[in-house]
Amino acid sequence: MGKEQTKGLGLLVLAGGMGTRMKSALPKVLHRFSGRPLVGHVLKSGETVGPDGVGVVVGHGAEAVARELESGSAAWGLRVKAATLLQKELSGSGRAAFEALPFIQDFKEVLVLCGDAPLIRPETLSGLLGHFRSTASAATVLTASVPDPSGYGRIVKNPSGEVLRIVEQSETDAQTAAITEINSGMYVFDAGALAQALPQLKQKGPKKEYYLTDVLELIRGRGLKVTAFQAPDYREILGINSRLQLAEAAAIMRERVLLKLMDSGVTVLDPASAFIEDTVQIGQDTVIHPGVCLSGATVIGRNCSIGPCCAVKDTVLGDGTVVKFGCSLEGARTEADCAVGPFSHLRPAASLKAGAKVGNFSEVKKSVVGARSKVNHLSYIGDATVGDDVNIGAGTITCNYDGVKKHPTVLGNGVFVGSNVNLVAPVTVGAGALLAAGSTITDDVPEGALAIARGRQVIKPLKQKV
């Protein structure tokens, strides 16, 4: 059985497959939907059962998968750091598990999941583990009853419900072909029993592969118990092998997310057109209008309204914030009771303090807009600090880039900026100052001063037309 087992439960995710049907240079398990790559969803569900260690077997695209696991785990909401285990010989799931033997031997129990099966629910994994333990099994296979079992391995049981064998599609006869309970490719094992069986696997089939399913027969051959636990919804075990299946899985996940949000007190006016990722959090009594796309680490407070055709990514919106039609927000933050839009753009590091407003066709980038301040029309605010109770007139532009560096603009509390003003950074305007419409401000303006920086109007009579 190898070295002494010192830990309880190990989570082993098999993520080394080629994924040729995806027709992509990107490893299959890194294809994304609903805020995470496929393997990220699997790990997120798997860690809910409290593993003492997590290992991910990587093979095809190993370096890319390892990098993504290292850099992306926190963004996916994972709490447990996964170790990467290199599968040198890409010859089936059995070989993947065999090459993870040093990891397996560290534990008493091992939960094996598929890195391309992102729909598995935490509740199902909890039930699987509970069944394994309560029946004192050496192995428990997760199964599902499907409408069409074609192409799947069929689960053959004895009268007491124990698993006798798994019959692959190519080996079925009339009796086994009629069985609708199929193998998911996910299991819980007694680690010692698994470690003893893996070296005994033989290559099979035209591809000369090692099949993890064969360990069940080897374990049962030692007089140990092999059982099955059936998932309540067969869709949970669906693997992703093509772009079509990726889209189908994304639709299932989207339905789950929307149902969860609506059950928690969020109004989604048109679920068919709302795209909300699993990573998004939304508070009670918020209203989501048609055509909204919410993604990434977005957090929306209570009593907010997200208007039609808005895209919000990695953004935090305070309670009572209203985002009107056609806005794009990314990496931004608002405090309570802010208003954005219609047709506004908040770029990364845009920050609106309580009650601030950014209106029609205005853009804010890497700037703080103070409490109750207004950027209502056709303006660009970049690399700026705007104080409280500031009015930004229509057509105002912070000229923050000199062709080499970005420079800051600072507007004190209570500043009034007239329409069509250019603020040539670096520039500071003191509290309570007034900038006349049409001015180009190149020098600092003292507190309480009036700045006029525009050509004097000249009126001349028109020459008589010939």
As for the number of domains, it is 2
Counted beta strands:
41
Amino-to-carboxy terminus distance: 108 Å
Give the C-alpha Rg: 30 Å
Q: Runs with pLDDT <50, length 5+?
A: none
Can you walk me through this structure?
With 466 residues, the chain is an alpha/beta fold. The protein folds into two domains: 7-237, Spore Coat Polysaccharide Biosynthesis Protein SpsA, Chain A (Alpha-Beta Complex); 258-451, UDP N-Acetylglucosamine Acyltransferase, domain 1 (3 Solenoid), CATH 2.160.10. Helix content is 18%, strand content 29%. The chain has nine helices and 41 strands. The strands form seven sheets. The protein has an eleven-stranded parallel sheet, covered by helices on one side. A nine-stranded parallel sheet has the order 14-17-20-23-26-29-32-35-38, with no helix packed on it. A seven-stranded mixed sheet has the order 5-4-1-6-10-7-11. Strand 8 and strand 9 form a beta hairpin. The longest helix is centred in the middle third of the chain and has 21 residues, at 243-263. The chain is elongated. The N and C termini lie far apart (108 Å). 45% of the residues are buried. The mean pLDDT is 94.
Secondary-structure blueprint:
Elements: E1 7-15, E2 32-33, E3 36-37, H1 38-46, E4 53-58, H2 62-72, E5 83-86, H3 93-98, H4 101-104, E6 107-114, H5 122-134, E7 139-145, E8 154-157, E9 163-167, H6 174-177, E10 181-190, H7 191-197, H8 214-221, E11 226-230, H9 243-263, E12 267-268, E13 275-276, E14 281-282, E15 287-288, E16 293-295, E17 299-300, E18 305-306, E19 311-313, E20 316-317, E21 322-323, E22 328-330, E23 333-334, E24 339-340, E25 345-346, E26 351-352, E27 357-360, E28 363-365, E29 368-369, E30 374-377, E31 380-382, E32 384-386, E33 391-392, E34 397-399, E35 409-411, E36 416-417, E37 422-424, E38 427-429, E39 434-435, E40 440-441, E41 450-451
